[in-house]
């Protein structure tokens, strides 16, 4: 058994790096290639690697690492025009949530599945947009800086929505009082962790940084991530929120920039590629074909909502039409947060494999179409 698992892990890790590199060379996100490896090796195609509990645990650690690193990299002081970015993030995120939820309900999905679809498609992944803009020499333009800042706002909005979604799932029955209670718990947890937690973590990092063991600081960071995640889970908020907030908490530390590179070795070197591959392993291609029209409808709703949300959000924030069009186009692609939300919802039996597979396919489609839309917007 253990030999089979180790062989599966070695194959997945090797091929995710190869396919990830190929994806980047053709202008796509490395995530696309890593998920594709899982689809090809999974039950839908070659059936070489099947879902199993051990790999799922490693994949879950990959999710935590990914969100922890995302939180660590969220430095608000370096963001460009937070006011404009917040407006754009709210416009694009909320419009995408509302429109994709409405389309899902229109096609007959139940309420909880429709909410999962909407939440999964809130956050933008701009790695493809950044790569495309680098290729065409527009990486230092004003719209790009605003786009990056807006994507950070999208991430925070998506994590907040995911926290409320998981609270809804855990409570089962929802009332106005329960909804208000969940919202206050989530907001209170955010405030306490980011304020009181930051003060405690600053003292802890100073202590561990003074140790002779050079890896003590990294161990402290991982312990912090796991501890905050456990508390979040006890509050029915979800361990994912805990990992993200733990990262944001440590981002305020003077040692954050020395912690990030070492954690990336663990995360991007092993845990995170396994997560993306495992996401692909759980995809059912036949389920996608049976839900083809639903896939197209949700994809178009997401792309239109993100573009219009980015455009009108930018206009509302006082930007010119030409810049607003570029920002709207750059906010179309989906990525990590869509995969994470879909994966968590599937493992908790909140959505069927068909909805899960459709959401994964939307990530592929948005990553393929975005470079073409962006080139047109900047031409």
Give an overview in words.
With 379 residues, the chain is mainly alpha-helical. The chain has a single domain, classed as Na+/H+ antiporter like fold. The chain has 16 helices and no strands. The longest helix has 34 residues, at 176-209. The protein is globular and about 55 Å long. The model has no long low-confidence stretch (mean pLDDT 88).
Please identify the structural class as seen in this structure. mainly alpha
Give the N-to-C terminal Cα separation. Answer: 55 Å
Domains, number: 1
| SSE string, helices as H and strands as E | HHHHHHHHHHHHHHHH
**What percentage of amino acids are in beta strands?**
under 5%
Q: Major beta sheet, specifics?
A: none
Assign the CATH class.
Mainly Alpha
- In total, the number of strands is 0
Net shape: globular
CATH topology: Na+/H+ antiporter like fold
Helicity level: over 70%
Mean pLDDT: 88
Radius of gyration: 20 Å
Number of helices: 16
Which runs of at least 5 residues are low in confidence (pLDDT < 50)?
A: none
Observed structural traits:
Na+/H+ antiporter like fold; 379 residues; single chain; 16 helices; mainly alpha
Furnish the topology, listing elements before pairings:
Blueprint: H1 2-25, H2 30-41, H3 53-72, H4 82-106, H5 111-120, H6 127-135, H7 142-171, H8 176-209, H9 216-234, H10 239-251, H11 256-281, H12 285-290, H13 292-316, H14 321-330, H15 336-347, H16 353-378
């Amino acid at each position: 058994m253990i030999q089979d698992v180790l062989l599966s892990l070695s194959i997945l890790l090797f091929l995710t790096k190869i396919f990830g590199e190929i994806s980047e060379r053709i202008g796509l996100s490395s995530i696309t290639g890593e998920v594709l490896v899982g689809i090809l090796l999974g039950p839908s195609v070659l059936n070489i690697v099947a879902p199993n509990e051990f790999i799922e645990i490693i994949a879950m650690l990959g999710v935590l690492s990914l969100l922890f690193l995302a939180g660590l990299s969220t430095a608000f002081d370096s963001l460009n025009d937070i006011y404009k970015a917040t407006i754009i993030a709210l416009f694009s995120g909320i419009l995408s949530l509302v429109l994709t939820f409405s389309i899902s309900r229109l096609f007959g999905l139940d309420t909880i599945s429709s909410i999962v679809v909407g939440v999964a498609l809130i956050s933008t992944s701009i790695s493809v947009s950044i790569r495309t803009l680098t290729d065409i020499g527009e990486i230092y333009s004003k719209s790009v800086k605003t786009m990056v800042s807006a994507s950070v706002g999208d991430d925070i909005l998506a994590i907040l929505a995911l926290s409320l979604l998981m609270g809804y799932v855990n409570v089962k029955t929802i009332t106005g009082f329960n909804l208000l209670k969940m919202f206050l718990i989530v907001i209170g947890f955010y405030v306490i962790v980011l304020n009181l937690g930051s003060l405690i973590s600053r003292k802890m990092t100073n202590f561990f940084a003074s140790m002779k063991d050079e890896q003590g600081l990294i161990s402290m960071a991982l312990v912090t991530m796991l501890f905050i995640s456990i508390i979040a889970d006890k509050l029915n908020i979800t361990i994912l929120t805990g990992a993200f907030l733990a990262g944001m908490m440590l981002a305020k530390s003077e040692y954050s920039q020395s912690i990030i590179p070492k954690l990336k070795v663990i995360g991007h070197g092993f845990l995170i590629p396994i997560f993306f591959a495992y996401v692909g392993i759980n995809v059912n291609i036949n389920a996608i074909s049976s839900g083809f029209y639903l896939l197209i409808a949700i994809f178009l709703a997401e792309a239109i909502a993100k573009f219009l949300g980015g455009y009108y959000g930018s206009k509302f924030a006082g930007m010119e039409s030409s810049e607003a069009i570029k920002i709207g186009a750059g906010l179309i692609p989906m990525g990590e947060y869509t995969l994470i939300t879909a994966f968590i919802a599937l493992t908790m039996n909140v959505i069927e494999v068909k909805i899960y597979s459709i959401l994964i396919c939307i990530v592929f489609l948005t990553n393929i179409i975005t470079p073409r839309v962006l080139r047109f917007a900047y031409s």
